[in-house]
Amino acid sequence: MTDMTRNAGKKAGPTRRGALALAGAAIGSGAITGFPTIWAQNIRNITLRQAGTGVSGLNAIAEQCKKDTGITLQLTVMDTDALAQRAATQARSFDIADIEYMTIKKVYPVGNMQAIDRKRITNADKIVPIFTTGRLTPTSNIAQGTAPHTVGFVANKTATAFQPQQTDWMTLIPTIYNADTLGIRPDLISRPIRNWKDLVDPAFKGKASILNIPGIGIMDAAMVMESLGQLRYADKGNMTRAEIDRTTAFLMEQKRAGQFRAFWKTFDESVNLMASGEVIIQSMWSPAVAAVRSRGIACTYQPLEEGYRAWGGGLGIAKHVSGLELDAAYEYLNWYLSGWTGAYLNRQGYYSAVLDTAKNFMSPAEWDFWMEGKPAAVDILAPDGKLMEKAGTVRDGGSFTERMGAVACWNSVMSEDRYMVQKWNEFIAS
Amino acid sequence: MRDVELVAVTKRYGSALAVDGIDLAIPEGSYTCLLGPSGCGKTSTLRMIAGHEMVSEGEILLAGRNVTTLPPAQRGTAMMFQSYALFPHLSARDNVAFGLRMRGVAKAERLRRADEFLDLVHLGPLADRLPAQLSGGQQQRVALARALITEPRVLLLDEPLSALDPFLRAKMREELKRLQRELGISFIHVTHSQEEAMALADLAVVMDHGRIVQAAPPRQIFERPASAFVARFIGGHNVLARGAQAISIRTDRCRLDDGAEGPRHHGHVRAVEYLGAAMRIVVVAEDGTEAEAMLPDSTPPIALGEAATLTWNAADEHALAA
Amino acid sequence: MRGAVTSWLLAAPLALVLAVFLVVPLFVLVVVSFYDYDSVRLIPDFVFTNYIEVFGSMVTWRTYAKTFSFAATVWVITLLIGFWIAYYLAFVIEGTGKRTLLFLICTIPFWTSNLIRMIAWVPFLGRNGLLNRALVGSGAIDQPLEFLLFSDFAVILAFVHLYTLFMVVPIFNTMMRIDRRLIEAAVDAGAGFWRVLWHVILPLCKPGIAIGSIFVIVLVMGDFATVRLMSGGQSASVGLMISNQISLLQYPAAAANAVVLLAVVLMMVAAILRVVDIRKEL
């Protein structure tokens, strides 16, 4: 009963969320019927508040989590910038942060998150090496930008400085990642698209778009610049001022020439731009491509010779989480890597951090299509049961290894972040 | 030549009849008062003459010219509005000059003329003030000057004195009359006060229910009211029955019974009012008919409820139309 | 003495609300604008770098110029449209019932959220939108008009759509207070329609025009969502610049920008109030 009281006392507050949680806790704990509570059952009654982006803030995951573990997940979905803000400034407003590695680079040093004990993560050793060593295979190159392994570890429970090597204390448990490229409307573009430079082909004047999130947008621009042979960057994820100047000058020139139809900031905007035909080539996210296709409009996630710009996210635990809630949080993280979610995400076209467990939850045909890059043996269905890809289709970009092995750079936060944002604003204002 | 002539003028608002086929001729350079209770059609009549209302039927002639369909400014009339309708954002001078400005008179010229007209109404020194900085009487003079500056043939005044206190009202009354006489134009003045009409009018037009019930010089109206309504409305008359015939008798012609021959009204006293120069008593007969008398102030005191008889000379009775 | 105490007590709740929700936040805003920052943290300090960056950057000047041009254009258009709508409602329509009904119709755009209203423009104005299809279909044009969407035209269109009502209401309000006899007096003095409008109605509507102008200008100057969505992110506004900085956790820079914007807007409002005395209206 003491635990119950503690929980109730902690959760009772003026917020609606607190009241709901209290009600949930009261009913679930058997306080009403008067049955004695036990520890394990208490975990089942915990509510974890998860703040994340729309990419992985999926109700299906919360429902499955409730079913499997009894933990109630309360999802709050916001955009990347808002999430960074929330994590940096309102640490008590969430328990779990579902956050990108490039964001954690900014947020973790603030000290609002707690390090995750690797030893308590069951499948820690099975995590894809991208997140631990930065290399997909022992021989592959480490991509430019904020590679997840560079911001994935700290020295001990209280340290806020990242460690270049693996340690037992992780900032995030990796959960989801992907390789981004250009999306195109094959029905409106007659020639093959092979390079990032095609984004600024005058043939697509007034029909191209780039995303207006400075840190990511400038990297897409950098991919274009390199593809054009105009500039070679030492690290596209950490440009020098001169490189920033040249890149934004290039963007301004393109803008003035009327190359761009619009700049997008949210998932829905990118979908609408593409679906409406306002834009026929743009930097895009893979589920956005799927969303366009699900409207019956042809849309291709076009692999490019220069490679992909990748991003990855994971789950972190807020510093204030402790005791029973912390146990629940570990329980949740372990559940996340235990396969069901991995399969669910893989089926959306993302990749999961532990492949072995996910495989157990996918049919061989699904696995072959999504992960091996083989033609679909049967019709591929979306999680909601709708037809996604007809039998015989091959996934854009091929297999997992082909895609994640061709990452040119990771989404990142630059040292010259402040300067870069100023220049980006200049570009938008030009 | 007549300044204004109304021929069978009718005004309807939807199905409501406001003015019912009136005919009226207003002589040149005269002061006419349109008089009647509220809703009698006097204001509608004035507004039709001004051109702010269109007539439903009939014709309006000004100085022999048919103006029935002309806009206000082309009629040769000017109107002074109730509560004056001065432009609150313009100084007294600019208010007065407004009509000339609309007629395209050059600035220096129109301001010079405005000052002349302000002088005419003794407001020269206040020319730069805004209406809100002027008293009611001053505002009224500005309104008057503004109406007169376009040199209308007929000035239309809509209840011009009703917003003033009684003292100012009497003064302004004199001034209106003086101006009318000096300018030699016609004034048509709407009022519900018979006193005002008596004091000012060359021609008083009593209206009721959209019709003219009597149009005549005030003295004639007072001495020979055309109907019981007129007699009652202009006041100072008792309306009594003489068999089937209604008669009126002026209250100042009635006296307390002094034994002389003549018609009488017997009853008891319901009201006694001391009015300074006179005393007013009201005598109610058994059958409830009332009659009142204006008695000299030298009359001995008389108590309420006391029996009293009023008497008058039969020759002073005036037979009323049915 | 007691009267004085009562007055203070009566004024206290509002004063408290203003203090807590206006004065304190503004004070914090000003304080933070002198802070230093890195990519995630505020560093309490007293530095002028934020202001130096605001004033030293060409972006600021260009963005202000752009924002002013939006504000001026939207102001002129909403004034023209709003004035005539108000005129129609106040002077042409007779009867309170009909007037109320038409007023309700004017508020229809506000029955849905701002965002949905703006998104709804896309299928209408887009390259393959209704308007372009109709125009191409009717043979009026050969090629779809690109400027209809994701352009300054689209931004201004959305602003006008959003804010005209803010112009209509105060102007309508002042018009309803105009004594109808003033108009008759002007007509009597020989004024035609336009001169009544110019010499009587317009001067008497000035307070309403001023209030409407303050609404519209303040709203446009501070906007970020409309500009971003309707320009397709291709145009900047001061509000958008601040919003970008906030989203990148550059609070001190955003605060400095906000302080400057606040000062600019207050000066604009002061200028309007200098021209027109709106106290008559209050």
Structure overview:
The complex is a heterotrimer of chains A (430), B (322) and C (282). Helices cover 37% and strands 18% of the residues of chain A. With 430 residues, chain A is α/β, with parallel strands linked by helices. Among the domains of chain A are: 1-45, no CATH class; 181-309 and 402-429, Periplasmic binding protein-like II (D-Maltodextrin-Binding Protein, domain 2, 3-Layer(aba) Sandwich). In chain A, helix 4 (59-69) links the parallel strand 1 (47-52) and strand 2 (72-77). The longest helix of chain A has 16 residues, at 241-256. Chain B is α+β, with helices and mostly antiparallel strands and 322 residues long. Chain B is built from eight helices and 18 strands. In chain B, the strands form four sheets. Chain B has a six-stranded mixed beta sheet with strand order 6-7-8-3-9-10, with helices on both faces. In chain B, a hairpin with a 2-residue loop joins strand 9 and strand 10 (211-216). The longest helix of chain B has 18 residues, at 166-183. Chain C has 282 residues and is an all-alpha fold. Chain C is built from twelve helices and two strands, in the order H-E-E-H-H-H-H-H-H-H-H-H-H-H. In chain C, strands 1-2 form a two-stranded antiparallel ribbon. In chain C, a hairpin with a 4-residue loop joins strand 1 (36-37) and strand 2.
Keywords:
heterotrimer, B: 322 residues, Rossmann fold, OB fold (Dihydrolipoamide Acetyltransferase, E2P), 2 domains, 26% helix, C: mainly alpha, MetI-like fold, two-stranded antiparallel sheet, 12 helices, globular, TAT_signal (chain A), transmembrane helix (chain A), transmembrane (chain A), Putative spermidine/putrescine transport system substrate-binding protein (chain A)
Q: What is the topology?
A:
The complex is a heterotrimer of chains A (430), B (322) and C (282).
Chain A: H1 2-11, H2 16-28, H3 39-44, E1 47-52, H4 59-69, E2 72-77, H5 80-89, E3 96-100, H6 101-107, E4 113-114, E5 116-117, E6 144-145, E7 153-154, E8 169-170, E9 173-184, E10 208-211, H7 214-228, H8 241-256, E11 260-264, H9 267-275, E12 281-284, H10 286-294, E13 300-302, E14 308-318, H11 323-336, H12 340-347, E15 351-352, H13 355-360, H14 364-370, E16 380-381, E17 387-389, H15 400-404, E18 407-410, H16 417-429
Parallel strand pairs in A: 1-2, 1-3, 6-18, 10-11, 10-12, 14-18
Antiparallel strand pairs in A: 3-14, 4-14, 5-8, 7-8, 9-12, 9-13, 9-14, 9-15, 16-17
Helix pairs in contact in A: 1-2, 5-6, 7-8, 8-16, 9-10
Chain B: E1 2-13, E2 16-27, E3 31-35, H1 42-50, E4 57-62, E5 65-66, E6 77-80, H2 92-102, H3 107-120, H4 136-148, E7 154-158, H5 166-183, E8 186-191, H6 194-200, E9 203-208, E10 211-216, H7 218-223, H8 228-234, E11 237-242, E12 245-250, E13 255-256, E14 264-274, E15 278-284, E16 290-296, E17 307-311, E18 318-319
Parallel strand pairs in B: 3-8, 3-9, 6-7, 7-8
Antiparallel strand pairs in B: 1-2, 1-4, 4-5, 9-10, 11-12, 12-18, 13-17, 14-15, 14-17, 15-16
Helix pairs in contact in B: 2-3, 2-4, 3-4
Chain C: H1 2-32, E1 36-37, E2 42-43, H2 49-56, H3 58-92, H4 96-106, H5 114-125, H6 130-137, H7 152-177, H8 180-188, H9 193-222, H10 225-230, H11 238-247, H12 251-275
Antiparallel strand pairs in C: 1-2
